[in-house]
Amino acid sequence: MAGEVTPTFDCRVAFAETMLELAAADPRVVVVVADTVGSSNLGSFRDAYPDRLINVGIAEQDLIGVAAGLAGAGLKPFVSAAGCFLTARAMEQIKVDLAYSGRAVTLCAQSPGFSYGALGSTHHSAEDLGWLRTIPELTVLAPVDPVDTAGALRWAASHDGPVYVRIGRVKVPQVNPADLAFRPGQAVQLADGAHVTLVATGAMAGAALEARDLLAGAGVEARVLAMASVKPLDRDAIGQAAAETGAIVTVEDALVTGLGGAVAELLAVTRPTPMRMVGIQDQFAPVGDPAYLFEYFGLTPVAIRDAALELVG
């Protein structure tokens, strides 16, 4: 309906609700935080399970070590901290204590991308997808909406290995059906099209769908894939999209070394395909609120449309 406003959601709410659900179902579930109860929306969890929330203070390297030890003792730790500090400060511990040691710990990266926009690049979590997908045996997920967020956490609780999950703070529309069963390595086709494929992760799925509508006005049919699983990647969906549409645009609220790099590496050795990567290029961001930064880096429906039009002429 014309003028109707699409509702949007803070995925931290889905995170908090799902953590309560998981804790109620499994007494082994614990949450470890770095003085981030409030920003992680975990006040209700703390009140319901005070003995199962461990606050190590602002010490992200210790945070990972404590979680690895809890996992070794048979518990199911969920680590929750600001994505920028969780990854940049504790990369060695993520690599060695979790991935190399095979610990079943779920890393919940709060407020990724430009969520802390006005605090500058020290607080932006733009590099995380590119960094973490290089670590062997670590699953890397960037849910696109609250349904994805809850599904990714439920799946992680059953997975016997380390998982990294982005927990978005920038409000996004729900693009997935409510009954979606999350599976790593499986994209969700949100719309079909024959001329170009838009592959979106994190907070960008809604923008990709809007770009599809803009492209339709130019006579271009765009397929839209929601790719919450950056690693493992849905190789079949990407290959099929390359074969059937002949052009691919990746869209991510991160450096293009994340989803864009992963898709480009796959296509380079399987089916070379014209591509554009919409995301952050090789630069630090200026200071500004998230809306300004999304506009600055072209993370908008209009910019996605323009990237697609470059490919299809």
Secondary structure blueprint with pairings:
Elements: H1 11-25, E1 29-33, H2 43-48, E2 53-55, H3 60-72, E3 76-82, H4 83-88, H5 91-100, E4 106-110, H6 128-132, E5 139-141, H7 146-158, E6 163-167, E7 188-191, E8 196-200, H8 205-217, E9 222-226, E10 229-231, H9 235-245, E11 248-255, H10 259-270, E12 275-280, H11 290-296, H12 301-312
Parallel strand pairs: 1-2, 1-3, 3-4, 4-6, 5-6, 8-9, 8-11, 11-12
Antiparallel strand pairs: 5-10, 7-9
Helix pairs in contact: 1-7, 3-5, 8-12, 9-10
Can you offer a commentary on this structure?
By secondary structure, the protein is α/β, with parallel strands linked by helices. The chain folds into 2 domains: 11-167, Thiamin diphosphate (ThDP)-binding fold, Pyr/PP domains (Rossmann fold); 188-312, Rossmann fold, CATH 3.40.50.920. It has 12 helices and 12 strands. The chain has helices spanning 11-25, 43-48, 60-72, 83-88, 91-100, 128-132, 146-158, 205-217, 235-245, 259-270, 290-296, 301-312; strands at 29-33, 53-55, 76-82, 106-110, 139-141, 163-167, 188-191, 196-200, 222-226, 229-231, 248-255, 275-280. The strands form 2 sheets. A 7-stranded mixed β-sheet has the order 2-1-3-4-6-5-10, sandwiched between helices. The protein has a 5-stranded mixed β-sheet with strand order 7-9-8-11-12, sandwiched between helices. α2 links the parallel β1 (29-33) and β2. It is globular, with a radius of gyration of 19 Å. The mean pLDDT is 95.
